[in-house]
Amino acid sequence: MASITIHSSSTVVPSHPTPTGTFSFSECDQYRAWTHLPTIYVYKSPATEVVAVESLKTSLSQILVPYYPLAGRLHWLPGGRLELDCCAAGVLFVEASTDAKLEDYGDFAPSDAVRQLIPTVDYNSPIEELPLLLFQVTRFSCGGVVIGVANCHTVVDGASAITFINSWASMARGEKTVETILQPLHDRKFLMPEKPLRPPRFDHIEFTKPPPVILGSSNPEEEAKQETTSALLKLTKEQIEKLKKKANSNLTNQTMGVADEVQPRPYSRFEAITGHMWVCACKARNTGESRQPTVIRIPIDVRRRMQPPIPENFSGNSSFVVLTPECEFGELMSQPLSYAAGKVREGTWKMTGEYAQSVVDYLAGQDDISWLRTSFHSKVLVKASFWGNPNLSIGSWISLPFYEADFGWGRPSYFGPATLNIDGKSYIMVGPSDDGSLIVAIRLQARHMDGFKKYFYEDI
């Protein structure tokens, strides 16, 4: 593991006075992990003189004015809920260097070594002292630079965080100003419970039903203790088209669950790839028990599913999880890919605006929300169920514009998560090239990874 030298650590505060007082979160914010999601931006050999840290800090200070909630601090409320103190305490900015070269980190798959490129968060400290946003700029001996980002998931989701980073980058390179960036909308009114609070209109098994466990074992904690490893698996545009063609080759109204007079919509990239990953995981994890139950847990962004839609400049969390129907290893492995893709669609299409509002009402009715929180990106203990073997949790980062983060020295050569801490956790991400390729970042138990990789490519 390469040695990282920290040269300075400073707090960057908004450049001008910002609104103060207590900020209330929506239920969608409340059940997200209060820990920090770590991601990295890799830049190959920008000119040393171009990477002006003071310019980065100045533009960061400026953009924190419209994004003032990110400079605040969290406070606990009864029932495991949180509120935000808009106190302009600032964000952490770390300058570091290493004698290593970018190539020493290989493909930057999530690992302890990559995690060193992210600022350390001391979760033993009171939550009121923890910055919500942390950055680390690490210079490599080859001239490359990595920007490590840790953002508090209670305050922002992936889409909101990327909008912030890209706006900051546009200001750092002198293209935009505070006045000309897309102004963030902090109002959480879009995902608030009905008043008076009414019972949820749906049965939310994504919260109430424990995930399937390994047959013959009633203790998922043993699975959670197994050694895990992560990998980045690239899919070319041609491979993606093959998977889509394979998934749609058996497309019928019956497999789609629609009436005969309705023209079935072809399976998307996400549905085909997710179904393929599910089948490959079943094969890799297969212990000979064909009746082993399994599900996939999928976060769905509801911005466009609400009526009316949530504005694009919304700065909070706007995703809820859904579950695919419970399947068995044997049926997934024996059926064509259209079967698994259809089960993925059956789960994701359930998330309508009405269903999302019902989730909000369900969460608002919980006296204590702590047991619902999961954390796939830190080692902080949480009360939620273990979602690993025999299950998967797959998020789509396909449409997020990571590679617009040009701080003045060009597009990043790679963006991805620094940590996937739980077996079964995966993201499907857009690749750095404009060639239609995608990258699958996944963590599995070490004993299953080689088999998963084998089936992942052989079965395309």
From TrEMBL:
InterPro entries, per database record: CAT-like_dom_sf, Plant_Fungal_Acyltransferase
Gene Ontology molecular function terms on file: acyltransferase activity, transferring groups other than amino-acyl groups
Family label: Belongs to the plant acyltransferase family.
Alphabetical list of PANTHER family matching this protein: SPERMIDINE HYDROXYCINNAMOYL TRANSFERASE (PTHR31642:SF324), TRICHOTHECENE 3-O-ACETYLTRANSFERASE (PTHR31642)
Stated name of the protein: Spermidine hydroxycinnamoyl transferase-like isoform X1
